[in-house]
């Protein structure tokens, strides 16, 4: 059985490793290289960092009742929802990376405040009624049966 401290340490380590790996991709690259469109929609490396910051803040903030203290782009407004996939002229590499680091720090405090295990399960149970979760479990059970 994994205790809360072990689970949190594992999560911290995993998130830190992945976040450092993302930022390492920017090392040594020119401004052009981090900003040039890499997909048909214009997504670029700096935009991916913005996107991870936005959704990290949203998920580890709003979902767990600890909203990120800075404004986030709206996900229900098309122009704002897509704007985090690239850096604008008014955003420096440092602006984007600094925001990513602030989200990182905020999410670590959020994880520290979370209880793993029973409390997390109780939180999920509050999001939907028992019928929703029973139906979800039936679907997952069918998926498991068909896979195995």
Cα shape: globular
Number of DSSP helical runs: 7
In terms of quaternary structure, the protein is single chain
| Domain module tally | 2
The helix fraction, in percent, is 55-70%
H/E element sequence = HHHHHHH
CA-atom Rg in angstroms = 19 Å
* Strand count: 0
Could you list the spans in which at least 5 consecutive residues all have pLDDT below 50?
none
Q: Main beta sheet, described?
A: none
The residue-averaged pLDDT reads 81
**Strand portion:** under 5%
N-end to C-end Cα span:
25 Å
Structural class: mainly alpha
Describe the model.
There is one protein chain. The longest helix has 21 residues, at 4-24. With 148 residues, the chain is mainly α. The two termini are 25 Å apart. It has helices at 4-24, 31-35, 45-62, 78-82, 93-113, 118-127, 130-147. The chain is built from 7 helices and no strands. Helix 1 (4-24) packs antiparallel against helix 5 and helix 3 runs parallel beside helix 5.
